[in-house]
């Protein structure tokens, strides 16, 4: 791990019902960063250099997925910081929190097939210029886990056209559309590219032996790691 | 004690997977006359005292800002529960 990257501090927010905060923090550490725990009830980002909103079922997904988390004290300061350029990654439930916060457009509804999906999902990286994807190449296919119930991305046609035209579709499902998401969209960014949200889980594919299926072995895939090295690199070069 | 009833429905252009699943189950139970089902949400907000125009206005704002997501849902009604009871018993 690079010592240069060791100084970057990446915050991971925990809401009541968050599941994947420990995995996200571990991914940050494996990428060479320092993980900083942030609490939903504190309006304090502890001077972190970037923030991950992890997956889970914050507030039990009551009302709508991510809807109640959006009004947590930490979100007020996060929304301001994100609008000021702070890199923010929303994974699964974190993505839903970002759409409910209007940091990202669109919304998620129940999967088309109604089933909770849990599988290894191939994605195409469409935009390799965001803070969280710069260590990929555009058009690259990656495989990371997908596990959710409310994963169907929806937005009106005008918004979808805008996202496509501005290169803000960051990830698209490769092959069959697993959940009915409009235009196969798996992840998007804001206009500046510092805020990225996606339904699949990069933090679960960051260490050989515990990752996704790959040529080197059934759990050898570590395609998720580049999300975290990307942001650390972006911070160093900022 | 007053009560405001807020109804929220998925937008017409948004496919409603839950409603579709319910619609699929009805014929199996012998209910063959229903062409489609859409599933929404009903909220009941209690207040201390009467449902004044101010209370209704606040409920309407809460409905737009929190109880619904305007990207996927419409607030279809925000009414004093007492008015619904009158209709029901009429």
From TrEMBL, chain A:
This is Phosphoribosylformylglycinamidine synthase subunit PurQ. Keywords: ATP-binding, Cytoplasm, Glutamine amidotransferase, Hydrolase, Ligase, Nucleotide-binding, Purine biosynthesis. One of its GO terms (cellular component) is cytoplasm. Part of the FGAM synthase complex composed of 1 PurL, 1 PurQ and 2 PurS subunits. GO terms for biological process: 'de novo' IMP biosynthetic process. Its EC number is 6.3.5.3, 3.5.1.2. Pathway: Purine metabolism; IMP biosynthesis via de novo pathway; 5-amino-1-(5-phospho-D-ribosyl)imidazole from N(2)-formyl-N(1)-(5-phospho-D-ribosyl)glycinamide: step 1/2. One of its GO terms (molecular function) is ATP binding. Its main location: cytoplasm. The active site is at residues 92, 201, 203. It catalyses: L-glutamine + H2O = L-glutamate + NH4(+); N(2)-formyl-N(1)-(5-phospho-beta-D-ribosyl)glycinamide + L-glutamine + ATP + H2O = 2-formamido-N(1)-(5-O-phospho-beta-D-ribosyl)acetamidine + L-glutamate + ADP + phosphate + H(+). It is found in: Cytoplasm. The keyword Metal-binding does not apply. It comes from the Bacteria. Part of the phosphoribosylformylglycinamidine synthase complex involved in the purines biosynthetic pathway. Catalyzes the ATP-dependent conversion of formylglycinamide ribonucleotide (FGAR) and glutamine to yield formylglycinamidine ribonucleotide (FGAM) and glutamate. The FGAM synthase complex is composed of three subunits. PurQ produces an ammonia molecule by converting glutamine to glutamate. PurL transfers the ammonia molecule to FGAR to form FGAM in an ATP-dependent manner. PROSITE patterns: GATASE_TYPE_1 (PS51273). The gene is purQ.
TrEMBL record, chain B:
It catalyses: N(2)-formyl-N(1)-(5-phospho-beta-D-ribosyl)glycinamide + L-glutamine + ATP + H2O = 2-formamido-N(1)-(5-O-phospho-beta-D-ribosyl)acetamidine + L-glutamate + ADP + phosphate + H(+). InterPro entries: PurS, PurS-like_sf. Pathway: Purine metabolism; IMP biosynthesis via de novo pathway; 5-amino-1-(5-phospho-D-ribosyl)imidazole from N(2)-formyl-N(1)-(5-phospho-D-ribosyl)glycinamide: step 1/2. It is found in: Cytoplasm. Its EC number is 6.3.5.3. It is an enzyme of class 6 (ligase). One of its GO terms (biological process) is 'de novo' IMP biosynthetic process. It comes from the Bacteria. The keyword Cytoplasm applies. GO terms for cellular component: cytoplasm. Keywords: ATP-binding, Cytoplasm, Ligase, Nucleotide-binding, Purine biosynthesis. Pfam families: PurS. Belongs to the PurS family. Part of the phosphoribosylformylglycinamidine synthase complex involved in the purines biosynthetic pathway. Catalyzes the ATP-dependent conversion of formylglycinamide ribonucleotide (FGAR) and glutamine to yield formylglycinamidine ribonucleotide (FGAM) and glutamate. The FGAM synthase complex is composed of three subunits. PurQ produces an ammonia molecule by converting glutamine to glutamate. PurL transfers the ammonia molecule to FGAR to form FGAM in an ATP-dependent manner. This is Phosphoribosylformylglycinamidine synthase subunit PurS. It comes from Sanguibacter gelidistatuariae.
